[in-house]
Records
---
Amino acid sequence: MRVISVAIPKGGEGKTTTSVNLAASLAATEKKTLLIDADTLGASGISLGYTADQVKSGLYDVFNYTHSLNRVIYKTELTYLDFVPSNISTVQMEERLLRLSENRTVMRIALRDIEKQYDYVIIDCPPTLRGITTNALCASDSVIIPMRASHFSLDAVMRLMRYLKWIREVANPQIFVEGILLTMHEPNTKIAEITGRELRSRYSKFLFKVVIPKNSTLAEAAFYGRPALLYNINSKGAQAYFELATEILARDAAKGKLRESVREDSGSYGEIPDSQRSENRNPAGPDSN
Ligand SMILES: Nc1ncnc2c1ncn2[C@@H]1O[C@H](COP(=O)(O)OP(=O)(O)OP(=O)(O)O)[C@@H](O)[C@H]1O
Ligand SMILES: [Mg+2]
């Protein structure tokens, strides 16, 4: 099971859109996928068509130790996609969740429950670093950083990179950057050009090949409570997220093959030598660049 957080400490960068559509695309390729909504606003749930009255239990109950993760899993329209909603309905619950998530290991321990059931777990994080995002990062193998072309987004990426360095030091030494994903991309604009240049000079090895175009179908699909591939599979948005899933699956397959060959060569389940790692799999951090 691979656990991937989708995070950046800034609002409106495409975290939820990426989480929902990546999870749906992975599920469409018959990978058993669980999407966890770790944002108290519950936007992933809304994007999958869940209304507040349909959500009787959720992640809050897991953090409150009243339910195991297994008991708060919901089905979706896609056979291979399941969902854990955020069921926060009051400010008091939100404050309590923040306190409960100070124990950084809650999510990691909760995920043990479902380890054998899923190929991928995607966690949609809120636009902050404290609390539940820290919990998600401590439980994750990797993080996807969606960002739009703007100066403030670049600042947020740098903040997250510094934070990941700290997470690696104190809690989760294995976490790596799955990739930085440009979202809402508008080619031939000055801001896209300068942000792209800045990103390539600082973080080129972390950039996904695929770029998500600005595409109104993605917003419309969320409005109607469906992943884009169930709303309009031929739209540029749905296709771009499918490409993202393909890029991640191809890397994972390559990594699996490499592991097998290392095992055959050495007779043991060795670590992949640095020289053979995929470029994008380097540990993150401004200093490792
Ligand atoms: N590629 C895209 N093209 C057009 N609209 C998009 C695209 N990606 C996201 N949007 C829209 O932009 C808005 C913000 O996206 P989203 O909710 O995914 O961001 P977020 O990072 O999760 O925000 P928050 O931090 O508030 O949770 C939404 O209305 C969404 O429908
Ligand atoms: Mg969101």
---
Amino acid sequence: MDHPGCSIIAKVVPNSTSTSRMDYSSSGLELGMFYKGDINGKIPSQKHFLDERPDIQCHASTNILDPAGRGHAKSGKSNDTLTFVSTLNIPLSVGYLELRSSNPFIHPRIFLNYYEKPEDLYLMMSSLKLSREMLKQPPLSTVWGVESDVDKEMSDEDWEKYIRKKSFSSPHPCGTVKMAPESQGGCVNHRLQVYGTKNLRVVDASIFPTIPAGNINAPTAMVAWKASRLIEEDYKNKS
Ligand SMILES: Cc1cc2nc3c(=O)[nH]c(=O)nc-3n(C[C@H](O)[C@H](O)[C@H](O)COP(=O)(O)OP(=O)(O)OC[C@H]3O[C@@H](n4cnc5c(N)ncnc54)[C@H](O)[C@@H]3O)c2cc1C
């Protein structure tokens, strides 16, 4: 599993003054655009986020975030680029691995399977359409012009082509050795022990049974914390 992302890029329109360019990192922009309450720049708190399980994560950056095209996190020339990124927080599509050899040093084939489920494609399409709409309205449109590949009439088929061509990893791959009953394809049990072995645990993002609805560094740290308790318990029970 992974959180696929896809972006829309805008460039400073000719004749915009340099002072109107976005010279700051994305946080200021996100605050200004998405937080509608406080004009004094007060940081939003949890109560402002009513949906505790949002299905899309959007962020804006003055870097070019287009790994499927022009590479990851390249700074635009003199901050002349704005990227809106949409990420699927709760993708339904699940990928798979194929071993190419019994030799553990040969890399497996990885099939990410993005947008296998139409619901994922629909969500991404809706989010990109909304991003484009925001970029094409003032005040953003007075400074930023959407790049030509999406600055035109687009059918849903066009959007699908764009999304399939431009999508990239968050990168949050996980769940390749999931914790689940063996009968359901699980590789480790609820104590993170690998089925069919003794004293072998897996402690990383690969044991997630489903992908968390958000970035996965903190959940990985929580798995590590829990595993340390499990190992300690087993050690004490043995002695
Ligand atoms: C560019 C990038 C940006 C990210 N940004 C964010 C973010 O902003 N927020 C967030 O929450 N998450 C982010 N992530 C995701 C997050 O960092 C990872 O999902 C998380 O680190 C996964 O932890 P892990 O322990 O499963 O794997 P890893 O952190 O990849 O750890 C695997 C470890 O195993 C070691 N290893 C590999 N092979 C062997 C071997 N054969 N023998 C011994 N050791 C081996 C590696 O050296 C590595 O130390 C980002 C990831 C990337 C790549």
---
Amino acid sequence: MTSGDFTRRTFLGASAGAACAPTQAAATQAAAAQAAPVAASRVVAAIGPGPAALSLSVNGMAHRLSVEPRATLVEVLRDQLGLTGTKLGCDRGACAACTVWLDGAPVCACMMFAHDAAGHRITTIEGLARGDALHPVQAAFIAHDAMQCGFCTPGLAMSCAALLEREPHPDAAQVQAAIAGHLCRCGSYPHVVDATLAAAAARRGAGE
Ligand code: FES
Ligand code: FES
């Protein structure tokens, strides 16, 4: 395969499950995909080109779907499951608006084929709250005015909530690192950091 053969499909295949990351990291992934063709590292059964059966676990619910192999996870979440809280911005791994959890880790849902999510636990912003009780990060975003237009907010909330799962005592630098790669055209970053630190304190206070 030459660099001229590199396509969106080879990039998505090589980066399936990759965490949302800054643009530089996405570029590095692209370079790695060019250097190491997918066929050399992954052997998968051929499906398509028409829709194929797919079972997805989303927010604790099992869904049996018929999905074209080319469909990305964000497309299926939004268009087939109606979970429009996950936003589609750049559609190329550069803004993190589409961030969801894959087995608890934040990933860009535009950078993953839906079929590659089979067998994994997917959590979207709709699954973050516990019943009528907002997740501490969601509540803190509201209390700290951590949004303006709100387009980037679901993705940011998913990354901040994931941070608190792995680090209950984050400092500001760790929050900033967790949201690196998220683009907020409204410039809400300082409030997002404040909100996440407040959410961490609230969780500790509640014994979570
Ligand atoms: S990174 Fe997925 S929409 Fe921008
Ligand atoms: S609040 Fe508008 S893009 Fe972030």
